[in-house]
Each structure stands twice: as C-alpha cells, then as structure tokens.
What does this fold into?
Amino acid sequence: CPRRSPATTSRPGRAPPCPALPRCPRPCPASSSPVACFSFVLPSITVVTWNVGTAMPPNDVTSLLHLNTGETNDVDMIAIGLQEVNSKINKRLKDALFTDQWSELFMDVLSPFHFILVSTVRMQGVILLVFAKYYHLPFLQDIQTDCTRTGLGGYWGNKGGVSVRLSIFGHMVCFLNCHLPAHLEKAEQRKEDFATILHMQQFEGPVANGILDHDLVFWFGDLNFRIESLDICFVKYAIDSNVLSQLWEKDQLNIAKSTWPVLRGFQEGPLNFPPTFKFDVGTNKYDSSAKKRKPAWTDRILWKIKPTSKGLATGGHQPSQGVLSVSQLCYCSHMEYTVSDHKPVAAIFAVQFASKVDKPLVEIYVADEWSRPEQAVVRYKMAVGFHRSSWDWIGLYRVGFRHPKDYVSYVWARSDDGERCLEKQLCAQVMFSEEALPKGNGEYILGYYSNTSSSIAGVTEPFQISLPRSEEGSSSTDSSGSSSEEDDSTLVLLAPKSRSPSPGKMKRHRSRSPSLAKFQGLILRPSSRDRGASRSPSPQSRRSLPRNIPAIHLPQEGLGHHGVKSKELGQAAESSEGSLFYQTVQEQGGLRRVSADSSLARADPRNLGLLPALRLEMIDQALGRRRESADQGYYPCQRMSPTRLAGCNTSPKEGNSP
It folds into this structure.
C-alpha cells in the first residue's frame, strides 16, 4: 500500500510526517475511486481507563499514554475514559467556566506529540476524551456524542455511560466509557444498566444509529465486576504468587460474557496484570481499612466487531467492504500511579480495515513558506458531495495546537463563489490579512473547518512563516497587550447560538481549551495555562473591565439571527488586505462618527463577532450613564458585567459594585 499521503496535505511531493504502513497482504489494485487499497492498517489505537477517585491530576502521565516507549509515531488515536472526576458543586461550576484540570493535563501532554483533541463529553464525574494525530483529522467525520444517566434510577449522572462515535477512514467506530454500580451483589444491576445504556444512546444519520450498529465498538471504564466465591486470603495469595489464572474463572465479567446475551460478541485480552482495585491511596498496598475489600479487576477494556459491515460513511464515502480485524498488542495496568484507589489500565490495538477512504473532503494548497504578507494566499478545492456552509472557515494553527479552536487566526471560506467552485471543481482562494499573520519564524498548519460537520475537513503539512518584527508592529502589540491585560480575566456572556467559528477565543490570551457543549455561550480569558501552575483557576481572580468600551456597529446586510458576517467580509477577502473590518464609534461634541482608521476597526473578530447587537447597545448606553454619573459626582462601578449593567449608577453610599 502507499504511505499515508496527506491527501490532507496540499503540496504534492512532500512525504507526510507519519510512519510507513505495514505491507498489504496482497497487491493493491489500480482504482480511480477514493478507496485506495485493500486491508489498510491503522497502526494503533490506545484506550485508557482510570477511576481517579476525585484526586488531583499527577504531574506526569507519559508512561500511562505509552509516550515514552519510542513507539509514539505508531499511535494514531488515543481514547481516555475517566471516572469519579471531582464533581462537587463548586468544582463543577469552576469546570463549567474553565476546562477541567484532567482534560488540560492530557492536552498539555499530547499536543507536543501532534495529537489533537477530536471530541470530548462529560457527565458529572465521567469524562471521555478522543485524540488523533493532526493529519488524520480530515478522515474523522460524523462526530457525535451522547450520555446516559443510570444513577438514582436514571436521574443522577454519577453512574452511567458517555460515548463518542465517529467515522474513521469510512468505518463507523464508537468509544463507550461506563461507570457501573459497585459491590459484589450488584451484578444483575450492572447488566441492566449496561443494557439501558445500549438502548438509550442513539445517534443521528443514515447508519449506525445505535452503539452496536457500529463496525467497531470499544467498551471500557470502571465496570465494577468483582471476584465471586473466593475469600480475600486466597485472592491475595494468588496475586502474591502470580497465579492470576486461578481467579479468572470466578471473575463476574468473564462469567457474564458467556451467559448474558447483551455481552455476546465482546472480546477482552487475558488479565495478566494484578487486580486494579482497591488500593490504599498513595501506595501499592491493597485495602487495609476496616472494610478490607477484596481485590478485583473492576477496570476493563473490551471491544466488539460488527459481524457484517454494510454501513455508509458520511460525505458520500463508499461503504465498508469485508470484515475488519482487531489485534490487541498490549493490555496492562500501571502500578506507578497512586493518586487513586484504582490503578489505570491501558490497551493498544492494531486495527486492520477492509478498505480506506484516503481522499479528504477539502484539499488545501499553500506555498512552502510565507516570508511576505502577499504570499499568505490559500487555495482550496472541495470534493464532490461536500456539504459546504457560508460559516466554514480556514484556521492558521501553530504546530503543536491542541484542538480545532486553538488557532492563531482565521479567514472565512468565502461564500460568493463557493457554489460555483464546488459545482465546477475549481479552486477557491482566500487571503490572510497582514495584521492577522504571526510575526517572527515558526511552523504552521492550515485547516479547513466545516461548520456543518463541526470538524476539520482538510489540513496541510507544516509550512514556514518568516515575517519580520517591525517596531511599529511590536509597539502596537505591546499596547494591545497592556490593554488586554487590564481585562484579561473578564467573563463575557454571549448569545447561546453564536455563529462564530470559535466561541472560546480571545486575541491576547488564546483559550487553549475547547468550548463545553453545554456552555457554548461563554468566553473566558485567560486560559488556565496562562495563570500559572494551577490548571483550574478561581473565577474570583477576575479584574475589572477597561473604562472606555467602544460601541460596535455590526453590518446589517447578510446577518443571520446571531450572525456577524456580511458582504463586507467577502469584499474584504477580495482585497489585498484580506482582513475583516469592524466599525468603532468615537464621540465628538456629542455626535458619533464612524472611524475605520482606528486600530479597533481591525479588531480580531473573535473579540467582536460574538456579541449580539442588543447587548452592545446596552453597554453603550451604560457607558453614557456612567459618564453622566461621573460628572454629577458619582463614582463609576469598579466592575461591569453585561448581566448587571443596571447596577452601575450607584453612589459611594449605596453599596459596592456588582
């Protein structure tokens, strides 16, 4: 088979940054279809499960993720399932405003290895994160998530399951992370809860609506199955004597796989590692408390292959043909982690697909180096059947970015000639403005973000940007930086259905964490990375807003309900500048005049494009009242929030700021 070509990449002739694939068992036939060869092998998928017991993250997880084995280049995807992440009220509120510490940790560790967060889902203390190498992103489509509560009769999410499903090279794969009921006598309850999760979780689309409808299912988590019949003394003796096989036949999950119809077809590797529960925290010693719980393999990783693959992948891809195969390369626990009473478990799989979709939905063409602003031209071509949107955009990412919203800058994929280019299979063209380009030297990647599928549909290989740092540019940067630092901890409430490409971005302190599914109307800065060692900063550290906030007039033509784009954006993209312009308002003798020369007129649309016009009107009115109050001897508020503008006209005797 040919090497994995960055059909994602746009510059032919350059080798992709990935290892060579294993040889095909038989020659690949010549074909003009997107399915390039038989028996495509994705080198490996790593699955990790860990009940963290509400603990804080450790300092290092490289060994858990098998990143220090010298085989990192062979890993293409990593799925991480966590259970019992601290979900107390104060912690959940903080995690709603900021990315939780565990997710931050894994993104920090994996991004230097070119892993990008593809999707994440959380249900109270149950979290699932799926990562992939950046050059695989265009082939990961139809990404959906779901969750099912089973605690307290289905009303509480301390128990249950969360899932991420996606199409990988045209094959439907589902990752399911579960936390099932505890205790030895609850085996039947575990079976019922698992059946409920399988029944309740349904996905949209023409194929693979249920979990078991997928070509491949990975089921893992704290499944809480115990060892029956044997007393604790014999169990510990078998562990100390390394005769674990004497415990296998009494393991509840092993028994259930042969007796429960719901588990038919699920496979698991041999349990050649000691039971992973229950340990004294901070040690490798089994439970020494008064309860003296019997050791058990509660943390498990299983997989199931659909007997026949007849599903069609999204985007017009061809159906899966033949039967895929899975080989487990590693199945082990990690005794070196002692922050929880559970030991984490990891498994590595080699997945052999029957066929491979190797043509991306969008191909991007770019020069090898941008040394002058006029070279920042991007040409892209959309595949037949691609569902484009006027809200699609092309992001510029620094090599080592962490998730699709972690871009340096972006331009809209212009909509005026998009349909014509798609119909006639022509290349469309956009251009980054000089102000949007990063100064200095560095390696960057371009990615086409599809608003319809909420995923990256095409990427390039890394290329160089070498732009000089001008004195004017650096001074303006310093100036903007100082103003940004003045309010860099501000919480801004936004419209819940914002059409902006990135609801989690700011200009100076870029949010390096993806927006939460249930909190898409929040923008925060800075990220927890920028605040120091703590990964979960307190919102109490926010400082005040700047005194002078300009009013912003958004273009009216071409706006959607919450849209911010207009024909001016297309015209700006036509120009040599290629930037997005916004209007600021300055006061002169009581009159307002629009100025396009102000530096704020070229402000980053990530800062401006999300706010609804009504909210900006309220801020402007509040500023007017604020100035009048100052003239009358009142003190202005020390802090303004869009949700508390009415309280900003207070005197010193009337109380503190909201």
Summary: The domain at 44-309+321-353 is CATH 3.60.10.10 (Deoxyribonuclease I; Chain A).
